[in-house]
C-alpha cells in the first residue's frame, strides 16, 4: 500500500471523495498549516487530510469557558485531543485538495477544498506547529453488483429528495443530473443524507462500493419512512458539507 505524510485537519464531520469542503480557519495551529500549504506552488496540489473526531473537540478551549464552560485553556497542535491523538480520531479519513486558500487581513483563512482519496490513519505526529499524519491510501474497490445497486440507490434517493422537498414545501433539486458512476453515487448520497457522524463514517470506510450502496439503500428506506411522519426538515445542499468552525 502507498503511504504518504500530510498535514492533518480533524473535524466534527466526515469528508467524502468528490465533495466540497469550505473552511473558516482561525485557530493558530490550522493557520500555521495553511501558511505552509501556501508555500506549495499553485500548479501543485495543496493537500491535507481530514479525519472525523471520535473523542475530542474540533475547537480547542482557548479561554476558561470557551467552548466548554468547565474547560481550561489548551495549547499546541494536539489541544483538545488527549494524550494520544491517534485514539481521538476515526481510523479512515479523506485527502482534501485546497483549490482556494485566501488569507484575510486579520490572519485567518478562507479555504475551499475538495475530497479526493480515502486514507487510513497510521500514526499522528504532534511535534510541529500543526498535526501531521502518516496515511495509507485506500483504493476504491467496486464489489459485486455495484452498477445495479447504484441504480437502486438513485431511485431511492430521488424519492428521498421528493419527500424532503415535500416536508420543506420547496424543491431541493438544482436541475443538475445525478451521476451514474457507482462510486460517485455512493459518496454523493452518503454526504447528502441527514445522518449522524458515526453513520457517515461507517459509509466512508465501507470495504467496497457495493457494500456502501447496500447500506445506503437500507438507510434511504428507513429515512424515507421517518420523513413521512415529520412536518418539516432542514434542507440539504448536495455538493457541499457544513462549514467548519475552524
From TrEMBL:
Domain Lon N-terminal: residue ranges: 6-224
InterPro entries, sorted: Lon_prtase_N, Lon_prtase_N_sf, PUA-like_sf
Q: Which top-level group of life is the source organism from?
A: Bacteria
Supply the Pfam families for this chain.
LON_substr_bdg
Q: SMART domains given for it?
A: LON (SM00464)
- The name this protein carries in UniProt is Lon N-terminal domain-containing protein
Amino acid at each position: 500500500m502507498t503511504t504518504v505524510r500530510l498535514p492533518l485537519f480533524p473535524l466534527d464531520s466526515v469528508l467524502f471523495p468528490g465533495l466540497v469542503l469550505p473552511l473558516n480557519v482561525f485557530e493558530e495551529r490550522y493557520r500555521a498549516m495553511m501558511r505552509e500549504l501556501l508555500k506549495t506552488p499553485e500548479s501543485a496540489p495543496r493537500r491535507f487530510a481530514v479525519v472525523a473526531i471520535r473523542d475530542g473537540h474540533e475547537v480547542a478551549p482557548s479561554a476558561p469557558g470557551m467552548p466548554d464552560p468547565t474547560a481550561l485553556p489548551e495549547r499546541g497542535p494536539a489541544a483538545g485531543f488527549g494524550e494520544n491523538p491517534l485514539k481521538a480520531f476515526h481510523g479512515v479519513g479523506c485527502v482534501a485538495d485546497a483549490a482556494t486558500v485566501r488569507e484575510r487581513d486579520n490572519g485567518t483563512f478562507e479555504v475551499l477544498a475538495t475530497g479526493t482519496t480515502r486514507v487510513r490513519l497510521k500514526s499522528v505526529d504532534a511535534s510541529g506547529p500543526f498535526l501531521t499524519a502518516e496515511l495509507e491510501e485506500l483504493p476504491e474497490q467496486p464489489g459485486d453488483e455495484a452498477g445495479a445497486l447504484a441504480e437502486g440507490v438513485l431511485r431511492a434517493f430521488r424519492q428521498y429528495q421528493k419527500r424532503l422537498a415535500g416536508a420543506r414545501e420547496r424543491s431541493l433539486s438544482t436541475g443538475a443530473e445525478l451521476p451514474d458512476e457507482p462510486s460517485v453515487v455512493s459518496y454523493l448520497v452518503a454526504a447528502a443524507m441527514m445522518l449522524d457522524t458515526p453513520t457517515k463514517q461507517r459509509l466512508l470506510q465501507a470495504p467496497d462500493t457495493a457494500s456502501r450502496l447496500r447500506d445506503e439503500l437500507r438507510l434511504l428506506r428507513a429515512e424515507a419512512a421517518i420523513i413521512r411522519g415529520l412536518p418539516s426538515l432542514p434542507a440539504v445542499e448536495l455538493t457541499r458539507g457544513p462549514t467548519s468552525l475552524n
